Each structure stands twice: as structure tokens, then as C-alpha cells.
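Quick entry, no commentary yet.
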Amino acid sequence: MRRFAALYRRLDRSTATGDKRAALVDYFRDAPPQDAAWALWLLAGGKIGGARAKIAGTNELRDWVASASGNPAWLVEKSYHHVGDLAETLTLLLDDPPPSLQDDTPLHVWIEQRLLGVAGQDEATRRALVTSAWSTLAFDERLAFNKLLTGALRVGVSQRLVQQALAELSGVDIARIAQRMLGTWAPSPAFLRDLLTPGELPGDRAQPYPFFLASPLEAEPDTLGPIEDWLLEWKWDGIRVQLIRRGSDIALWSRGEERLDGRFPEIEHALASLPGDAVLDGELLGWREGDAPLPFTALQTRIQRRKPGPKILADTPARVLVYDLLERDGEDLRERPLAERRAMLEALLASHADPRMVLSPRVATPDWAEAARLRDDARERGVEGLMLKRLASPYQVGRKRGDWWKWKIAPLTIDAVLLYAQSGHGRRSALYTDYTFGLWDGDALVPVAKAYSGLDDKEILQLDRWIRANTLERFGPVRSVTPLHVFELGFEAVNRSTRHKSGIAVRFPRILRWRHDKPAAEADRLDTLRTLAR
């Protein structure tokens, strides 16, 4: 634990990406493989325990630390709201043990034998383990331990940065490391060994490739050069997927690194009938009879069902619009230019002719001005705008600017009233930065959207002070506030929803501006939003 705690402290105190990467290289070079495997799991976003194997709930931790520190519950709660992070609060409320009693057990022993050893057991057993650990860990180790308990290891390190450090350390290409870390894996020395093994391993053939992601286009498109150098496609509102056929293996992988096996059997059947092996990149959509996509909310009914029944299959048929060909009969095509990959993809799908897996159509336009006019009509087509892809581009890893752009239509907007606020996370954990907004339905304000981005630091501080001074009620971490302030919200689409009190669900809401010029009585009405719903 001591070595991992030192890594956490070094990462937490550094703001430079190069310094963080150097700290990771130093740790993975020197740490025992059992510890390094767990550190990789934690830094990649993995947690200890789970819903079925609970180690400690947040309320339990508050109760236990109150007893262990001799502080009343109200003071623990006050301290937590002041600090903003539960793990840090727990650490600060407890004293360090004398050096002779401090524990130096390795990280993997703490996790595998102690924490997982009591996971899911009765409250007294779990409490005894946690409070005993608190009494034997110094400040840095105690903080790292508490981060494991709360699952909030926020230290400004992305999975990509960890992969860069491992690539630097091992000499293995970062794309190979990223590919091996996709999907479900277990933290073990064997996995770490295979992850950092040069060359190809048998298990690599079961994995998808890391997705290449487009960046938002902020400049005018004519700054990109001649339109003839670009492939234009519609930006579909579905689930980005890779379809893998390698021999008898058939797999659907989402961009969220989840295998979708069994949920879309019609797509698996279409993939199995391909002439030869291939890895395809595309967009999974619900698709009605005719030639138009269903709203994303319709597709959500399929995502939640691992084995959909006949009614679901009939109500929400699925289709994949294929963007790219990444592999053909075992050959990795990602370094070839997009124009070449697209030609091979067109030939493959022309020989396949299955309506459940079709080529994403090219948007033909003579110039950028005409492309802009087509983009303005995108919402009527059920799409979010245009994708712009340089025909000479390879298929890269992650979000690399320059070759792939998403040129989205202007968002839909409403003016809504702030109703509720909750504290944020990370560096904003001591501020109220998560907001719930409502619209008028008759004489009542009905919640319609939550948003936490769009304000600058000065506005956040100003609004935080106002929220604290104008709280009406508290519901745990949430405060209801005087319905006074109006904000313009932007979002991509509106859909009918039986899961929301308003009957409406908005896609990707964010704050566009604080409407100081508008009183709450002049905010928009729910009927306005209903008229926009698909």
C-alpha cells in the first residue's frame, strides 16, 4: 500500500502531463507484478467490490468514522460538506498511528485477502476490517485506502495516459496496448505480462480495435481545403460499434467497450453471412420500415435486454450503417488511406446485400456552401449533422484532431428555471455545479433536464453563493432553491419518455448562457418542448 500511496500522492500533486507519465513509468517499472496489476485496474477506472459484494456504503463509512474519531455525526456531515470528498474527510478526521504500529502490507494483499475477503459479509465484520485499517495506516496510505473504499480515485490520469506510460516502459505499440485493454479483463500478473508482450498473442484476435473518434468542427469548413479531399457522411444518432467476424467467432463491441452479444441477433446473423472475415466500424440504429432511423430512445429498449423477445425485435428492428473496414481476412487495414478502405468496404457490402448491414451513404455535394445547406436540414432527416473525413486519413486511435470532424447542427434551445442543485466532483466537489432545470406546466414548474457544463468559473462561484443563500429544502446532497434564475439550455433532440415525470427526455443537455435579462415567469412552457419531441 505504501508504494501505491506514494504514486497517488505524486499524481495528485502534479499538474503537468509529462510529470504524471513519468510517475506512472517509475511505478510500473519498480512495483511487484501483483501490485502493478491492481494499480492498473484502479487507474483504468476499475473499482473494488460491487453491488453484490459490498465492502462499505457511504452512510456506513460516516457512522464508522464518527465512532472511531469520537466526533458526533453532525460534525462528520459538516466536515464532509466542507471538504467535498468523502475519502479525504475520513482521512482528515482520524489520527496517524505511531510509526511502530504502521502497516506496510502490499496493495494486492490489502485488496485480495482483506477487502475482498470481507466483501458482502455482515456489517460487524466489514466494520472491524475497515476501522482496524484506519488505526494502522499513516495519512497517505489511509487516504489511498479510503479512495479504494469510496471508488473515487480521481487523480487527473486518463486511461490513455496510463497506456502511454506502459508503451514507453515496454516498447509495445500503444495501439496494441489499448486494444488489449478493451472489454472485460481481470487484474492479474498474467494479464499484465500479456499486455506488455511484444508481438501478437492469440488473444489479440478476439479483441476489437480502439475506436477513432472525430473532433467537433469549430472553424468554417472551407478552411479544411477542397471538398474533393473529404468524405461527407450523415452523423447518425445511434451506438458506435465494431462488428467482428474472425472464423467462427462473431462479436459486436460498443464504443463503451461492452460486448453486445445476444442483444442484436439479427445483426449477428447478418455478420455471420459475410463472405470472409472482417472487422467493420459503424453505427447501430433502430430502423423503421421505409428508410428512416428511429429515435435513440427506441434503441435503448434493445440495449437493456440481453435476449430480446419477438415483440421487441418486431417493434425496434436494428440496422448497422457501416462506416469503415478495419480488417479483411486477417489483414489490418488501418494504415491504408480511407479512400482505399472505403472502396474495399463498398465491394464487400455489395457482394453481401443484407439490409441489416449497409454502407453509410456518401453525402454528395459540389462545395462547402451546399454542404452547409444540407447540414441545416439534418434534423428533418433524423440525423445530427455531417461527418467530415479526410480521404487520405488512416484509422487512428482515440480523438486525434485534423482528419475526422463532426459538424453538428445548431442545438435546440429552451429557457428553463433552476430548481435544484447538487455539489460536483473532483476539483468542484465543494461547489454546487450539478443543476436541475424546469419548465412551466400550467402554474407548476416541472423538471425536464439536468446539466453541469456551460458556465465559467466566475459564474459558478456566483451561482454557488446564491444557491447557499437561497436554499428552500435539502434532500440529502440536493438542495431545492428559490425558482428565480433562468438559463438557456441547448440539446440535440427531444423524445417522448414514460420514465420521466415530464413525459419528455432531452439528449445531451448543457447550459448555453445565464439569462439575467429574463424573469422566471417568462421561461418556456413544457408544451413548447412537447412540440419538438419525436
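second:
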Amino acid sequence: MKSTVLNGAFAPRKGLSRLGLLAGAAGIALTPGAALAQDADATADAEPDTGAPVIIVTATKRAQSLQETPISVSVTTGEVLEQAQIRDVLDLQTVTPSLRVSQLQTSSASTFIIRGFGNGDNNFGIEPSVGVFIDGVFRSRSAAALSDLPNVERIEVLNGPQSTLFGKNASAGVISVVTREPQFEFGGAVEASYGNFNAIVVKADVTGPISDSIAFSLDGSYNTRDGYANIVNLDTEQNNRDRWSARGQLLFEPSDSLKIRAIADYSRIDEICCQVSTLVAGPTAGAIFALGGALDTDFFSYNAFLNQVPINEVENYGGSVQIDWNSGPISVTSITSYRELENLFISDIDYTSLDVANETRDQAVSTFTQEIRITSDFDGPLNFLLGGFYFDESIEQTSQIENGTQIRDFFEILAGANPVDVITGAPTLFNGLEASFGFPQESIFATPLLTAEQFSMDNKSWSIFGTVDFEPVDGLVLTGGFNYTDDKKDFALAQQSFDPLAQVNFVDVFIAGATGGTVTTAAQFAALPAANQAALIGAATDPTVNPLLGLAAFQFQPPFLTIPNAVEDGRTRDDKFTYLLRAAYQVSPSINVYGSYSTGFKASSVNLSRDSRPANTDFLAGPGGSTIAAPASNILNAGLALPNLVSGSRFAGPEEAEVYEIGFKGQWDGLSVNVALFDQSIQGFQSFAFTGTGFALRNAGKQSVKGFELDSTITPTDGLVFTFAMTYLDPLFDDFPGSVLGDLTGVTPAGIPEIAIATSATYTHEFGASGNRLITRVDYNHESNSDINNGLPTFNAALGNTNIFRREVNLVNASMTLALDNGIEVGLWGRNLFNDQYILTVFDGVAQAGTVSGYPSAPRTYGGVVRFKF
């Protein structure tokens, strides 16, 4: 058995013909997921006993065949990416059933979910549970992993915690993107595609030798498309594509034992995103219409009404150097990287044409990583891998909410004012409040900014990890692995709340007024007789006695307690030892089985948002958010309490994963079947939810999922390949009493389809001995009907969680490519051919109680492609 690996191991410098490899790969099984997948730039020879191709992956940080790799791993090849028109990681989920990618409010915000576990990336303080690595370099935020994927060799999706193989953030799984390294034979490709919505994609790459020991490669892509949604009142398209990327590589092989690969890349996104539609227009819609605003309740009309065109700008760039030294029995790999990410977005957060409020967020992330691994390749029964990983990242974020020109009028009507009075400028409730509290007239909701925020975080961590393989008898491999991680975060958060109404607590105002101004502090209140305290609280919290209470709903952004402070040090310190135990046995040349127990870890996450609040162990507000009637606490005792300060979450503690898994991998002539059964749980799962005006970060006590993954490939005749991949998940909140929806203990977590299927049929027709081929592919992606979430904190809570929105996915994609032996390829492609429509996700309307907004799925896209490989 012979194989060649072009990434992470050594390959001959000469004699690899690109055309020969591509032609040889034509008959290889092109799987949608964890079934067989051809390494497009690696040679594939038949195993003597099975006649099946050898598929080389580096999922375990060693070069192994997919058949020998004793973990659940899905592999998608560069050839499948081309045929299925998979542009970025967002599209990858259509061919990998264990993976789900959820698009959020901007081009740069997405959530990667494996086996039902994942965290929202709409907050840069939250570490992802699914780690994304591109050429061995950790991309800490999804915005740094969403550029188009040029020149990809394969994408490996590793299911379950991978702490013993990766040094950072792998409590739920890993997405590992492996690109082609430079070759010592001149070659390349150029591709142009045109589709509906004026979609134009141009990609090119070239590689070749500079000398006998130095090779280079250059690749780039340009992706533009009109928007498939329309901002009606601004006559502007939305959900467009406007992105490009470029990358250069150098490969040095000064000797047979030393290889150095240097990569530099840059990508940019400048798009108008993302389409938000209205599922339910709540009671506030009347006020919007009364002031001349508009919204569209036809969810899949792709029509939006906004007062500002959204801005999404992302710059992502950096470089890495990988050094591989091979002495024979010992190999050493070092990967050093530095990356910068700049992310800016400006959006209309009320998603109506009424000028209510806009948000600006400007984020910058700088990341340095260093990994080093030592791997053995002894002839004896014992082998090992030992590695170290260092991570140093800094995050800076400034953001603000701008008051729109109509926000005051909008809230006046919601407070009960006559729309005619508001429109004509007659004195209203807010004018009366300004007079009563001594505020300047026309100051409530009339300041230029509602809030401004400044957040920063420095994260340093290091880990030591490794595995030991022991083969006591031929075919039986016992593996032990470990990871020790030490993680430190230092963060600072400050906010300025400019609205004067938010600076007043109505319970405290009543108490002060009822006592003639003699009780204005917690100490003075505590000195009163208990009966007097109870009477004051009873009256102050009775809306029939204290009419101001109804206005508390308009205090969206109260004063913010800056951190660090005398009570909160703005630090998290975590460390954890995790481990792996596994037994793998080769029953026959065609059958491998394995069983494993592993643990995983992810460090604390920080709520870098205006909704970041002290823990209830540091502060508890009194009734109605009162400070005067608040019980004693560290923050109150230190004199730090602010009006309307309430407890919440500054950060969420670590996640600790545990997985039991058994697997079967069978490969015969014309058939492969891979099955994994698992029982996976995460203690302290970091749940992140939007509440309508902010974000809540909570630790679930325990969330678990049981299920299985099945992947199969059938080749009934030469040129015809069927694949079928399926994931079944049975999730549960074992313990989650503190969610924003109340006690979810014993409830099935929503947003996790019970059944996900990815299946395909590929037929390659060869024209005699000419080398010409016609490749036809059809694939189908299904997610069973399931709840989108467990409810919405505002909308569903008011209905007793009786109206839960659901989704089902049924996507059919197809392509046909004529590949000529002279390197020219001409093809047609289509995605979502039957225009399946479903809800991506939903959320409470911003400052619009009873309104539900959401993201609609993308419509059908299709086009043609011309490609030349040389």
C-alpha cells in the first residue's frame, strides 16, 4: 500500500503530475461527509484486499488513512467543493450532516455547531465551542474563517472534543481546512462563474518551482453578486456579495528532512447584510405606521424597510510559518502565526423604515499563536505525539447606539400619547416628566447617542497535549491522551448611558418623595422600622399608587457599572486537565472498530456587551430595581451601586465535555460504511441568548446529546457513486434552572434537528480513451422539522411558551461538468433548486414587545462555470 500526503508529512518534490492526479481522482468516491473522500492532490492506490482507494487525512495530527483513523471525522474534498459550488464554511453544512452553521445579523457573525453544541459569535468575548483551524492555524472568531475557500485540498470536520490533539477551544469539535501547498511542478487553474443575481466569481491559482528546493503558489478569488433582498424605501439591494481574497505561499525543502512552508493571506468583505423579515408584527406596529414607518410581514418576500443601509466591512489578514523536520523515527512540527481581524458594522436595529435607532460596532482582534509537536514513527509497539500550544490575543471594541430622529415620538405613542399630538408637537408625557425631574425640555430620547461603550480583553493561554499509542498485538492499538490548559483573561468594560430617563429609579424616587427626602440611601432605609419599610415598598411597587412604574419599560440602557472596580477585578483564571482513553482494533483488512472515552474543556467566556452585569453574588437589586431597598452586597457596601443596576452575567464559567463513543469502519470493494454511536455531555454549557434589548450569557448546569452518525458510499459500477450520511441526535437539558426562559431542566434543547441527512449521486461518464469526462452530481440535504429555539424571552414568555416557531430543511443541489483532457472544464450548477424556504432563526423585535423578527433562508441560485487547469 502506497500513499502520498502533501500536508503535514513529506512528499516527493518532482514527478507529481496535476493532470494525472485529477484524472485519477475522477472515479474516486466523492462523499458528502464522513464517508470516503479523495485527497485531490494525493495519490490513491488500491488496498490489496479491498480494491478501495486509500484516503489520507491528518485528523489525528498524523498522516493516516480515513479507514484507520479511530475518530468520527467527515472529509470533504476540493473536488466536491468545486462541483457543489461550496464557497465558504457556511455552505459546508449542506454536505456534512453533523455540522450546522447559523448566520446571524452581519456578514461576519455566524455560529458553528457540531452535534448540537455551539455558541453565538455575535459577541467577541465568547469563545467558540467549535474550533476552526486553517492550515493548522486557529481562527478564534468566525469572521476570520468566512472568506472564500480557494485552492482547498480537503476539509475535515472532527466531531466531539479534541483537546488532546488541538491546544485551543475544541470542547464540541473542530473544523480543519487544509489547503494545497506549493508544488515543484508548474501548474495551476483559473475559473470564472456567472449566475443569477449577477453573481460573478473569479478564482485563480498558480504554483511551480523557483529552484530545486523552493516552490511557490499564488491564489486569489473575487466574489460579487447583487443582493437577493431589497430595501424598498431606500431602493437598495441587500444580502449581496462583495468579497475578495489573496494568498501567497513559499515552500522550502533544503533537504530531505526539512520543509518550511510560509503563508501570507489577506481577505476583505464589504457587503450589505443581512435581510431581517417580520414574522409577527406586535402591538408596536401601530405606532410605526402612525408615524409613517413601514415593515413587511411577508416573511419570504425578501423586502425590507430600513432607515439606513447596513454596512458590513471585514478585513482579515495574517501569516504563518510551518517548519517540519523529520529525522526518521522522530518528526518535529512548528507552526507560528500572527493574524489581524478588523470588523465594522452599522445597522438599523429596529428593522423598520422608522428612524428609531442604529447601532455601530467597531472591533479589532490581534492573535499570535505558536504550536510545536513532536511525533514518533517507531517500528516497535509504542509511538507518541507530544505538543505545546501558546495563544495570545487582544480584543478592542467600541460601539454605540444612536437615537433616531423619530425614537422619541415612537416611544411617546407607546406610552399612551395621541399620535396627532405627537405629530403636531403638542406637549406630551415626556415633557411633563422633564419638568418634574428637572431635565432639559426635549432631552428624553433626544440625545444624539443612547449609549456608547468601550470594551477590551487580553487572553493568554498555553497548553501541553499529547497521545501515546501502544500496539501489544498486531491490529490492536491502545491510546491514551491528555491536555493541560491554563487560560487567563483580563477584561475592561465601560459604558456611558446618555438618556436622562434611564438615570432614575422610580421605586427610589417614590420612597424619597414619600419620606420628604429623608430617605435616599440604603443605610437610611435600613434604619427605618420593618413595618415602615414594608409599607414604603408596598406602595412604591403598586402601579395604582406609583404611576411611574409603567415607564420602566422605556429605561432600555440604564447606567453601567464599569469593570474593573473595587469589587470585580475583571479577570478569569482557568486551568484544566483533560484526557482520552481509546482502544482500536483492525478486525480484518476491511473492518476497523474502536471505543473511546474522552473529556474536553473550554475556558470562561466574557460578556463583552452593554448587557454585561455583575453576578448576583456581588449585587442584588431591591424590588423594582431599587438601590435604596437593596439588600447588603459587596457592590452596595462599596458605594458602587447605580440607578437601575441589576445582576446578570459578566462572564460564564468553563465548559467541561465528556464523550463515550464506539465506532465501526468497514470498507469493501464498492462499499464503505462508517458508524459512530456517542453519548456526549457538556457541564456548564455557555448559553448565549438575545433578550430583545441585550444579550444574556449563562452556564447551563448540563446539556447532553445521545445519537449516532452513519456514513456510507456505494459504487455499484464504474463511474457511479452513491453516498449517504445521516446524523441522529437526542439532546437534553439535564440541568438548566437559570436560563433567560426560566427553568429548562428536563427540556429538549431546540435548534437541534433530530435527523440530518446529506446524500448524493455522482456519475462520471468517460468518453472512450480520450480522457474526456462528463461529471453529473446531485445532492440532497435534509433537517427534520424541529423547534428553532426554546422560546423568546419577550414574545414567548408573554404567551407561556405556547407559540414556538419551527423549521424543516430540504435542499437539492446539482451540477454537471464536462472536463476535457486538455484541462478545460465547462459546467452548470444550481443550489436549492426547488427554492425551499425556511426560517434560519428568530429573535424578539428590538424595543418592540410582541414583535418577532427572523432571518429567511436564501433563494435558489444557479449559474455556469468555465475552468482551465494546467
